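A protein record in our archive is deliberately plain, so that people and models can read it alike. The tokens are whole numbers drawn from a learned vocabulary of local backbone shapes. For reference, a complete record is included directly beneath this paragraph.
>
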Amino acid sequence: MANANDTLLSLDLPGIKKLRSGKVRELFDLGDRYLMVASDRISAFDVIMPNGIPRKGEVLTQISHFWFEKFSNLVPNHLLARAGEPFGVPALAGLPADLQNQLARRSMIVKRAQPLAIECVVRGYVAGSGWKDYQKTGAICGINLPAGLKESSELAEPIFTPATKAETGHDENISFAQACEITGREIAEQARDLSVKIYNTARAYARERGIIIADTKFEFGMFEGKLILIDEVLTPDSSRFWPADQYSPGKSQPSYDKQFVRDYLETLDWNKTPPGPRLPDDVVAKTTAKYLEAYERLTGSAL
């Protein structure tokens, strides 16, 4: 059974400045580049749980590496080196061996890009906040959709539904016109077109491997005057992955991400505000297994 000793929940590196600690990632300053480390933290209902999911950070990083490589001909990305490859960074070479081992499979050395101030969300199915929007207005982010769609219905064409970025709490869905006001029209159009192209390519690939990518969230940044793909890509944290053989519209679908965690939390008398309750070993173990299964299905190899 999984236990807390298997997880990396927080990280400080001697002599290296930490710039940011997000829900999952830690960002460190390496001078002319960043070190991005995926922890094993897990959040649900925007609350970080006290115990993590073993190997989660490793899965997120390795899936991102897989997609970055796959899409390198479609869009440039922020990756300079995989952790474990020669970094060429003296500050990291001097770290203790146990710390280097912790970093080896869950980190990326990345370019110092300036992130866009919007989330680039693409939806191929009506789910999550999109389903809630549709029930209220018949539209998602101002895009009118056909009447009579059910929860988890497939859309005739994927739609681009940007959102604002929230450091804490929920991102807010916005219209494309609002996204243009934030980033400028040319950049917003570029980000939209790239997002839809990457999503369509990934969705077709994953479908052949038994996974429906219902929707996903991309991050882009500006680097040397050009738009590049940054952060994580098409992971179970940034996307809804559904098992294709269990797909049945008209209800919420089983998924490859935090389903076991959410299902467990819904059984508790907990008001969904911090602090989060400790997750039992069986929920943790099942969640690790789902993350690993997603990696294996997508890449065709075990992690």
Notes: The chain has two domains: 4-112, 114-246.
